[in-house]
Amino acid sequence: MKKSLLIVCLMILHLVIFKQNAFSQHPITITGQVQDSSGAAIAFGTFVLLDPSDSTIIKGVDIWEGKIELKGVESEQVLIRISVFGYNTYYKQTTLTPNDQSEADLGIIQLEALSGDLNTVEVVYRKPPFERSPGKLIVNVEESMLSDRGTLRDLLRSTPNVIVKSDNEVVVVGKGSAIIYLDGQRIMSLDMLSSISSNDVSRIEVIENPSARYDAEGRAVIEIITIQGTYDGYEGSLGVRGMKRTESQMAYWGRFRFQKKWFTTYVGAGQYTGRLYEDETYYRTIKTTSPIYMENDVLRITDHQFDSWVWMDNDFRIDSNSTIFLNYAFSRNKYEVDVDNENEIYEDSVYQGVISSRTINRPSSFSHNISTGYSRVLDTLGSDFRIAAQYTNFDFSALGDITQTASFASDQNDFFRSTSNSGIQVFIGQADFTKKYSDKFNFAAGLKNSYVTNESGIDLQRSIGSDWESDSSYYNQFDYAENVMAAYLESSGALGKLDYQMGVRYEWTETDGNSFTAGNGIINRSYHNVFPNVQLDYNFTPDLVLGLSYVNRIQRPKFQDLDPFVEFIDSLTSFRGNPNLLPAVSHNAELSLIYMEYASISFSYTRAINPIYLSVIQNPGTNTFSAIQDNIQSADMYNIGIVLPYELSWWTTFNSFAYTFNTFEIDEGSTIVVNNKPTLYVSLWNEFRIPKVCDIEISYEYTVPGAQGFFTLQPMHYFFAGVSRRFMKDALSVRFNVFDVFRQYTERGESNMPTFDVSYRSWADSRSFMLTLEWSFGKLRQREMTEMFIDGDTQERLEE
């Protein structure tokens, strides 16, 4: 590992020296305007510089509203190519003559309209699937093989440096838990990850060093941007996906977008049915004179009977600068969970008996999300003002029947029934203002208020004769409210070769929790936090950037984890909430070196106080155990990350490596337990493009999670392969995927505490064979070209 790292560092140092010696002049910024023959600005196109000797691409940029601005050009002899739909391709070989500010103005370029068939338009530019900038990884999903991955959850699981755990927690490698935004609005319920199709995603931004404009919660941010229409008209698709896991599963969806000059509406809907298998094993050893050993085997079958979702997005353009938006999302999950549990008990290696239980649970959940707002562009530089409001409602309820048999000297049968419910409401209001004075200085400020309520209850009743009696140790009602007021200031700009972004965010948090069993005010806290952050990027050359950053973040307990509930598994095993959880604060510093917005090497350090991790406790005075979220004393994480991509016309590869050394200090009464073991992460992604035949994707991910709080986790890995092709003039997309074919994506861990040991193995139904068919349709037209329509297959050739 050390030798490989040394080689990479020497290669990058060589690039620095080579670039500095090869280009002593200042990079050139090209500006200009593109118009049609009548003098009207061209709305959208591509501007590309080619090498005059062999026509290879040097650099390119999009044309927006007729404006060209391409920075970092280091060649004076260039061949210009401008491509715009509906116009003849423009070529010109020229010598750039920059002024004292290293700017070369091309003036006004007029294009001639095509007089022939629209089908002669050629594809001139293809975005790479991955891009890198200091503190950020950009995944360009649209028009890549990633768009057919399945749900948003499946897409995130295939994103480099992102891990989606079995409980839907999303983790960024080397950072920790991430919060997720969808088109600028935070996703409060992770169930939405399974309710949005990957086909609707334009790009994903994995923000490792979030700025002050984002909520301070979480150690990283994932921003998901959906596809926005460019042309007037309509387009849509219908899809079906068949999956073979342990059993067969099916998914159906449709989406439709209609756009006029002043109005855009989008509707997507889908449905999923099928069974999902999960197998878990827990091992526990109580360290006494006569050690007690327990082996818990749990088989869980979840029958998704009718999961459905709807997503609607509406934009109303009042004028060229003002837009009102109204979005609505709905998801409904109704399923049955069949859990078989066997808990064998040994004392001094002698078999004592077994506790067997079977639970038939019937949960259902509904989620509604409504967001609306107004945005206005204030000037030609892109200054804007935005206000928005969001309401989210999540309702959950479940009824369960439990049969338990304790087989020791004799059999004892018990019957239980359980009920649980939870209602979460989220109210958010925010306002953001950005003022762009020039390319050298920008300023932003904002206010936000978030108010959350959670009302939940749980009850376990035991059958006594013909009656049912509540077990007081399990019954509880819990009401919780949290309010977070926030304000931020942020500035960004450039000082010569140094780009900077710095900001500060203030948050005031108030919480109040009342429990039926523990009384009122069990959670009653009010605390203030100030979160500074800074990002400095020094441009050795336009293609080589050195980044330095510092961010301060907070991890608040989840609402469900604060609920002092007790969830019955069997008479020796349960899950418990923890109202004593404290918020955790982290500090992160990172140094990175990025080449060509693609390859990178980074070093980071994170210090966390009171971080929250899953723990297993032995209940006082008993041999029973409970799984619980708990604070540990501190965590220190040292991380090195390397990204090595490469691209040819027929092949793209993106390889990511991370090595993290973790140290966790756990306060166990009079003993401080130190858990440290390094983490290794390897992600290899490859796409092969065979013209007129198919596209092939092959990826492999290997993770050694190492130390994670109370547990030391074991290696897990998976292999993915996919092949896709389009038919019927690209209207029909067919894709076949294989995921985790060798069934190695299994979570395993162990925890060695002073009085007991715990280990576990958790396997979800991850091996899958998936066939996806999607038919696209539509008629689109460019706004400036009256009655000139673009059908669905031509549109795909225009998108980058």
Which descriptors apply to this entry?
mainly beta, 4 helices, globular, 800 residues, single chain, 22-stranded antiparallel β-barrel, 48 strands
Structure report:
The protein is mostly beta strands and 800 residues long. The protein has four helices and 48 strands. The strands form five sheets. It has a 22-stranded antiparallel beta barrel. Strands 8, 9, 10, 11, 12, 13, 14 and 15 form an eight-stranded mixed sheet that branches. β11 and β12 form a beta hairpin. It is globular, with a radius of gyration of 29 Å. The model is unreliable at 1-24, 117-125 and 781-800 (pLDDT under 50).
Write the layout of secondary structure elements.
Elements: H1 2-22, E1 28-35, E2 44-50, E3 57-64, E4 67-73, E5 77-83, E6 90-95, E7 103-110, E8 130-133, E9 136-140, H2 152-157, E10 162-164, E11 170-172, E12 176-182, E13 185-186, E14 201-207, E15 220-226, E16 232-244, E17 248-259, E18 263-286, E19 292-317, E20 322-347, E21 350-377, E22 384-407, E23 411-438, E24 441-464, E25 467-470, E26 476-495, E27 498-515, E28 519-541, E29 544-555, H3 559-562, E30 566-570, E31 573-576, E32 584-595, E33 599-609, E34 612-618, E35 625-631, E36 634-647, E37 651-668, E38 671-676, E39 679-690, E40 694-704, E41 706-708, E42 711-713, E43 716-727, E44 732-739, E45 746-752, E46 756-764, E47 768-781, E48 789-791, H4 792-798
Parallel strand pairs: 1-7, 12-15, 31-35
Antiparallel strand pairs: 1-4, 2-3, 2-5, 5-6, 8-9, 9-14, 10-11, 11-12, 12-13, 14-15, 16-17, 16-47, 17-18, 18-19, 18-46, 19-20, 20-21, 21-22, 22-23, 23-24, 24-25, 24-26, 26-27, 27-28, 28-29, 29-32, 30-31, 32-33, 33-36, 34-35, 36-37, 37-38, 37-39, 39-40, 40-43, 41-42, 42-45, 43-44, 44-47, 45-46, ...
